[in-house]
Amino acid sequence: MITIFYLPDKMSLESVKQIGFDGVSLWWSNEFGDENYRDNPALVRAAGLFVESLHMPFESVNNLWLDDHSGDSLADNFIKLVDECADYGIPTMVIHPSSSNNPPPFNEFGLDRVKRIVERAERRSVNIAFENVRVMRHLDYVLSNISSPRVGFCYDSGHHACYYPHEDILVKHGSRLMSLHLHDNDGVSDQHLLPFDGVIDWVEVMRGIAKTGYTGAIALEVLDRGYEGLAQNEFLQIAFERGKSLNNLKR
Prior knowledge:
Layout: E1 2-5, H1 13-19, E2 23-27, H2 40-46, E3 50-55, H3 69-87, E4 92-95, H4 108-124, E5 127-131, H5 137-145, E6 151-156, H6 157-163, H7 169-173, E7 177-181, H8 202-212, E8 218-220, H9 232-250
Parallel strand pairs: 1-2, 1-8, 2-3, 3-4, 4-5, 5-6, 6-7
Helix pairs in contact: 3-4, 8-9
């Protein structure tokens, strides 16, 4: 299965399907100007595609670790989002466990909030995949303290290449791998390039993913920045071919 991050203002679902993708991942807010984002799951299915995951907003995620009401409010919002995932029939929500290079320290306050979110996810049969972001310590803390089968790891290849390229996080957390965000970059900036257009060693990455036993979608999280000279369908076609190449490397 090969999926792509769906940008409603940049691509049509009909084109995504026609080119050969099996599904998409969705951003679950109006941050990108998509006021009708809650309509997208039904539109995706009507086009013959499936929704691999929902990416949750992350601007205020550091509040999770603060000893004040903002952390409680954020946890309440994530619990509501778990319910929305269940109501819209989406199997997995992707959450950033922290934001920025200097998030607040991880602590029991935040862990208790995460446990509340996980309890709802268990009741509603929703998976929560915590993503590797700019720093790893909050992800490590969450995964080492919560053993629920509903909690796992979303591997982001671009973040790995930019922020801790020499750390083998697929070995560290591969047994919890639930979802992928595959994209490339120059090793400095999080560019979301098409695979093979940056510095990432995709043979090594895909072999590492294969060793985890992961059987889910080859999920591309690519953007069209830097590809403005390509028509929509050209970009999608190249992305699909790159996805197939990644899938072949995993075998």
